[in-house]
Amino acid sequence: MEFGPIWRAMMRNKGGYLLIALQIAVTMAVMVNAFAIMQERSKKMSRPSGIDDANTFSLVSVSFNPELDAKTLVQEDLDLLRGLPGVANAVETNSFPLRQGGWSEGLHREPGVGKSVSSSAIYFVDEHGLDTFALNLVDGQNFAPDQVSWDSDSPDFWPATVIVTQALAEDLFPEHEGSYVGKTFWFNDENPANIVGVVERMQAPWPTWTGIERSMLVPLRRESEFARYVIRTEPGYRDELMVQAEELLSGSNKDRIIRGLGSAEEARKLSYLGDAAMIKILSFIILLLTAITGLGIVGLASFSVARRTRQIGIRRALGATKPAIVRYFMLENFLVSSVGVIAGGVLAVGLNIVMVQAFALTPLAWYVIPVAMIVLWVVGQVAVAGPARRASGISPAIATRSI
Amino acid sequence: MLNMKNVSKIYRTDTVETHALREFSLTVEEGEFVSVTGPSGSGKTTFLNIAGLLEDLSDGTYELDGRDISKLNDKERSRVRNEKIGFIFQSFNLIPELNIFDNVDVPLRYRGFNAAERKRRIEQSIEMVGLGSRMQHLPAQLSGGQQQRVAIARALAGEPRFLLADEPTGNLDSQMADSVLDLLAEINAAGTTIIMVTHELGLADRARRNIFVRDGQVSDNAPELHLASMAAG
């Protein structure tokens, strides 16, 4: 290998090489941190909501007749919806995961005025909520029908039983080991709630909330002119049932409008729209920077070949084979790239530390920098291959030509 | 050692054919010091390029050490150039970014010698041309004569069977030229075959045999006659 002479030769003419190394370093620093952001966003987007996103949809009934009996209408609607062939279950609720709008409540471990120790998203449901959302009950049991009440019939508003997510239970009782069923906490420091069931996961409606995994089902039905229905279908029936459900409810009562028809998947997509856009923009920036760096390397190598045409002819005359000339330029590029990626690695870690401190970004995974180094080495080698191949085609006879 | 028979070299463009060598035949025996002279455009450099395997011939046969060169591929030609031939060029052709040591090292690396062997050969050949104290100097820090000595050291380091010198004193003053020619004579005396292409008639006298090239062919006339006629002309 000719590392020594190549390195020494580069050091005597280092301007162009340093610029390319700097470009590689900056590209790497940006690439690595952009990738870290993309990875974090992607991880965020792929978090399971806990519900059956693929087969769930929602619609809203808004009554404009003040004489309408909301309780009766909701029950009739649910009976109709549950009776539709292909519908697995349906529930009236205030929201669902990632809808970007919902109810949250501060929670207390003890009664009385004091600072809440946790907070949770609240989903008001009846005994069909657990099944409609297809939640995985890991402990305890579902609500019994007699535990479900109407808010108009409940003087304290908050029912005495709840089903919580595992994350909420752990947050409420961090020191507790064993089952959380039977544990009590307080709403608004005065209404006790007893945990009757624990579900593995059910995300809150707000995708950017740090406590997104903390939510609970509350057995309360709300008497209102506004009713949101969440419907889960058998696999494959969702799209046709969305149309049917809308038509069914619209036709069953003319004193209201049906709106807000949309699937849980659409809601999920909407809630992560910014993250998806960020991933696309950063991907484009990474590709653009890599392409610019590659073109820079092509430019430097082409200039280098043009400047050293005679030198290449001399090397050929002295016995260099064509592959040896290609290898020379490849090694030269490898050295430039190595300086660039090593400096880029340091720069990337520095930038990441700043970003972790400033934007609470997750620190870089150990493999990101080695992978980026390999990518940029490969980009460099691919970029230099063309000029190197052209260099190898230079005739050795050029060595005897007069300048 | 070197045997060319009826070698032709034709350069072709879309509209023009240039016959640089026509039916060129020459035999050089081992240990000879041959000068190749001729007027500008006579084909001297083309002969050197073909003899040094820097260019392909168009027709004829060329044997070097009994091997038919025209049948070799590029890799084999590179190897023959590297192992059997040493080149000395008019403009020295040192690599400006490399110091003297690294310049002499260039052909040795292509030869595949290990580091210790390369170091031994480099130091020996640089010492031989009297530049042992200048190994870390860059070419630009040396005089023309010294640069040509480095080029000779580079050519000799691989212990080639013969040296091809292309106007080796063309860029040197007479004192430096004499010193380089003395060095070539020493090298020849040590057994290395030398073919020196030059247009300077005075230099041709330093060779043991002179070949005169005209219109791409070896002239049948004796060198003395050429020298006399050229001097008269």
Largest interface: A-B, 27 and 35 residues
Question: Which residues of chain B sit in consecutive blocks of at least 5 with pLDDT less than 50?
Answer: 225-233
Return Rg of chain A in Å.
Answer: 32 Å
Strand order of the largest sheet of chain A: 3-4-10-7-9-8
CATH structural fold name of chain B = Rossmann fold
Q: What is the CA-atom radius of gyration of chain B, in angstroms? A: 18 Å
Low-pLDDT regions of chain A = none
Question: SS-based structural class of chain A?
Answer: alpha+beta
The CATH architecture of chain B comes to 3-Layer(aba) Sandwich
Structural class of chain B comes to: alpha/beta
- In quaternary terms, these chains amount to heterodimer
Write up this protein.
The complex is a heterodimer of chains A (403) and B (233). Chain A has 403 residues and is of the alpha+beta class. Chain A contains 11 helices and 13 strands. Chain A has helices at 3-11, 15-45, 70-83, 129-132, 166-172, 238-252, 264-271, 273-307, 309-317, 322-359, 368-392; strands at 56-63, 87-93, 103-108, 118-124, 137-140, 149-150, 161-165, 184-187, 191-199, 215-218, 220-221, 226-233, 256-263. In chain A, the strands form 3 sheets. In chain A, strands 3-4-10-7-9-8 form a 6-stranded mixed beta barrel. In chain A, helix 2 (15-45) crosses helix 10 (322-359). Chain A is elongated, with a radius of gyration of 32 Å. The mean pLDDT of chain A is 92. Chain B is an alpha/beta fold and 233 residues long. Chain B has a single domain, classed as P-loop containing nucleotide triphosphate hydrolases (Rossmann fold). Helix content of chain B is 38%, strand content 25%. Chain B is built from 8 helices and 10 strands. Chain B has helices spanning 44-51, 74-84, 100-111, 115-128, 144-157, 174-189, 201-204, 223-232, and strands spanning 2-12, 17-28, 33-37, 59-64, 67-68, 85-88, 162-166, 193-197, 209-214, 217-218. A 6-stranded mixed β-sheet of chain B has the order 6-7-8-3-9-10, with helices on both faces. Chain B has a 4-stranded antiparallel β-sheet with strand order 2-1-4-5, with helices on one face. In chain B, strand 7 (162-166), helix 6 and strand 8 (193-197) form a beta-alpha-beta unit. In chain B, helix 5 packs parallel to helix 6. Chain B is globular and about 50 Å long. The model of chain B is unreliable at 225-233 (pLDDT under 50). Classes of the chains: A alpha+beta (403), B alpha/beta (233). The interface between A and B is medium-sized, with 27 and 35 residues.
